[in-house]
Task: structure prediction
Amino acid sequence: MKGRFGIYGGQYVSEILMHALIELEEAFEKIYPSQEFQGEFQELLRNYAGRPTPLYYARNFSTLVGFKVYLKREDMVCGGSHKLNNALGQALLAKKMGKKRLITETAAGQHGLATVMAGNICELKTEIFMGVKDIQRQAANVKKMKLLGAKIKPVKIGAGVLKDAVSETLREWAACSRTTHYLMGSTVGPHPFPIIVATFQGVIGREIREQILEKEGRLPDAIVACGSGGSNALGAFKAFIEEENVRLYFVEGGGESLESENSAAAFQLGRPGVLHGSLMQVMQDPYGQIKPSKTRSAGLNYPGRGPEISYLCEIGRIKACYSFDNEVFDAVKVMARTEGLIPALETAHAIAYVLNHREEFSPGDIVVINYSGRGDKDMETILRYFYEA
Ligand SMILES: *Cc1c(COP(=O)(O)O)cnc(C)c1O
Result:
């Protein structure tokens, strides 16, 4: 069945959204492979986003852990994370489909920013749904989005957080999909969104493959990526799924501990269920009500895992792992002191996993960490952790 990964995925949406999903699927299949689209997309990735991003040999960090570690520098993409790869692809697709407007939702503001950047380039109006609580918490990014010309739509329903903003955006899309594209930010949502987002992020892994062959003459032994929906991880993994000797590690937000309500580790604490139009691994109570996730890292604070990541973890192709908040903050410091780089808190989950599970790697191993973003946006949280305790 289309858009299924094992039992996961599908299109659990109301009848009125089906037309928009079918139109999007057909447009993607036709437009994405075309020479015209590829030409413009590659040009934007190169000259606006700054691709290819470097694959950096982290010599000092490698000495510390005892095996070779490379960082795939997605923090150097314009905007500071991998998110723009997908936003540019979908905005260009929407323009070719004749749409006039982009809508999306955002929690921390990173995806909202990437969307309005891409919208401006493609001459599309951008409206961003955001929970009222998140608008308060993310004042700096809200100001940036407004400066770039985005219209911010406060969402008051429910708890006024991300999951409510997603529901509201889906409702809005159902009402105006003729003129409007919903620019989904991760490998989640109903088919065809997970496939579209994974395709646009796949550039990460294709570059890793080429760069590591050039530098080392062989494929890596392991790739480690953080994630919630799974877009940066799948982007890095996809070119290696068929390579059985490349181990793949997916690191989610452990939060404070696995025992309490203080976690976002959906692979440890969840089970299959429907969230935002798709069957996936999701945190829920015994009655199937979605449980809120909790972690200090905004980008990992989502109770669901996208369908493809859910499936690949279930069959054992990817190892599902987690890092706790305190390990994550320590990892930020280690990276800062060894390599002079301040990672995003999300990214630091992958770094912490490597630091704390050295026994899973051998001295001859080559390990690639997908360095998904930079930590500027998290400076306040990081400083509060170290200096206010
Ligand atoms: C948004 C974000 C993530 C998590 O999203 P995925 O879709 O799971 O990749 C990870 N790292 C950074 C830096 C982010 O901004």
Observations:
- The chain has a mean pLDDT of 96.
